[in-house]
Amino acid sequence: MPPIKKKKHGNSLRPLPDAVQKPQKRHSGNRRRIEEKPVQPPAPKKKKTRERRPVRVPKGVARSFFALLLSTAIVCSVLAAGFFCYRAARSFCITSDYFNVTEVNIEGVKRSSVLPLLADAGLEKGRNSLLVNIHDLEKKLMNDPWISSISVRRELPGRFVIKVEEREPRFCARKNGVLYYVNGKGELISPVTKTNFTSLPILEIGPGGEESLPLVADFLEAFGYAGFPFDASQISWIKVSAGSGFELYWESRHLRLCIGAENWKANLKMMATVVTDIEKRRESYSVTEIRAADGQVWTKSGD
After folding, report:
1. Which CATH architecture has domain 98-166?
2. What number is the average pLDDT over the span 146-167?
3. What is the DSSP string of 197-228?
4. Average pLDDT in the 238-260 region?
5. Which CATH number fits domain 171-301: 3.40.50.300, 3.20.20.370, 3.30.470.20, 3.40.50.11690?
6. 3-state SS class at 93
């Protein structure tokens, strides 16, 4: 029973309420027991995060995006359909007999052998014309040494037109013991054989004649218009050198003609005038050499 405290006022004693009563202390001997609570580390501070608000896309931007997406899908569909149509059409064309080669027309061929090269290049009758590669065909035909340039035209469904430009031989020249046809620039074309033999003058290059070699083509062209009583095909040989210029030998008359390389056009005209005059007087058999240089002409008679 709780103790009863007395009040000084009056004789009545009233008990104190329980909330006012002081707790009784427990002592264990002379030591005071202290209960220790475990020390907890401080809680980490939370970072303040901003509140994210939902992003709203404008209606116009959304419509433009969907329109772009739709148009891209339509374009891709059209391209895919076109590709499949192309593959189907190509497959039909390369397998159809309608596009087979039926005619090959060749123009400008005189000495070149084009026909054997056509079969090697894949151009032959009965083959599908669309399978013929024109670039490869022209490249293989250019292997013929006589061909200077060539053009191939395909005319559907099955016709080909081949135009050939050949090198024109002006004379012959020896190299390493072999006789070659040579064009006007001094370039070798092809060896001389029995099947392609043509009577042309022989070209010889003397000391220092390499410098005058590019003029040979122009010289022979001017020779044909100079008024000589014979053409260049009747000349046995022509020699180019620095000292004598252009030397020609007329075998049927045993006549040697020497034209100086310097101002050779004027010298050639004077030479043609003298040779024509000698022919008219029938003295060409007695004259063995005629030389034209520096605006003058000299003749030499045989013994």
Report:
1. Roll (3.10)
2. 90
3. ----PEEEE-TTTTTTGGGHHHHHHHHHHTT-
4. 83
5. 3.40.50.11690
6. helix
Q: Are 167 and 183 in contact (CB under 8 A)?
A: yes
Tens of pLDDT along 181-226?
A: 888 777 888 888 888 888 787 888 788 777 777 788 788 788 888 8
Return contacts of 257-263, CB within 8 angstroms, 24+ apart. 257/289, 257/290, 258/289, 258/290, 258/291, 258/292, 258/293, 259/219, 259/292, 259/293, 260/292, 260/293, 260/294, 261/212, 261/215, 262/293, 262/294, 263/294, 263/295
- Ramachandran region of residue 39, left (φ > 0), alpha (ψ -120 to 50) or beta? beta
DSSP lists the bridge partners of residue 250 as: 235, 255
The residue among 46 and 95 whose pLDDT is bigger is: 95
Q: Which residues have C-beta within 8 Å of that of residue 247, sequence separation ≥ 6?
A: 238, 239, 240, 241, 256, 257, 258, 259
For the chain, which residues make up each domain, given as ranges? 98-166, 171-301
- For 284, residues 6+ apart whose C-beta sits below 8 A from its C-beta are 253, 255, 275, 278
What pTM value is reported for the model? Answer: 0.55
DSSP conformational letter for 131: G
Q: Do residues 202 and 239 touch, judged by C-beta distance below 8 A? A: no
Q: Which residue has tokens 């103790």? A: 3
Q: Rounded to 10 degrees, what is the CA torsion of 257, 261, 262, 264? A: 60
Cis peptide leading into 207, omega within 30 of 0?
no
Q: Confirm if 236 and 247 have CB atoms less than 8 A apart.
A: no
Q: What are the CB-based long-range contacts (under 8 Å, 24+) for 57-64?
A: none
Q: What is the mean pLDDT of the chain?
A: 76
